[in-house]
Amino acid sequence: MKTYLKIGVTEAGCDEAGRGCLAGPVFAAAVILPANFTHPLINDSKQLSAKNRETLRKVIESNALDWAVAQVDNVEIDKINILNASILAMHKAIDGLKKTTPEHLLIDGNRFKNYNSIPHTCVVHGDAIYQSIAAASILAKTYRDEFMLNLSSQFPQYKWDENMGYPTKSHRQAIVEHGVTPYHRLSYRLLNPDTQLKLPIDFKP
User: Which of 71, 89, 128, 193 can pair with 28 through a Cys bridge, CB separation 3.0 to 4.6 Å?
Assistant: First the structure.
């Protein structure tokens, strides 16, 4: 993987996790790695086992010049849409960088909004190309998974400890049988169009 895009420039890699989920927040991370940093296992988080992601999370947090993780909840996602929420989460993660100010932002994907006066470069599949973006994808993914695992104990019927909120068959079936929770994204197509969505009596979106 490439270490950086611009030589001699402090770069922060940014990525998100959870865009395609039916429930829970979208998480994002920003990571600034040392210019000479390298690790053979670092890759797009989707290509890694859960065990390797957890191992790499510790490596990244202990070796990064700076890092931060942020989230935007499902209520805000429903208000501003998932693209804007993902970008907002990345902005919030960059806000969280306190030790080092990036001079350039490497963004996974093809859409972003200017953050202050810091120039940025969008890279499609950047988490498989640049170490800093891959590191951000690992932090965003592990922190989001941790959030959903903790939440799953309150709502075991949705099996978030297995699907992390993604639209699996069992997750959709649980929505049919039990309705939605306060953590579901109501702007998403939670069920097939001909299936009536059931809301709990005390549900307040």
Answer: 89
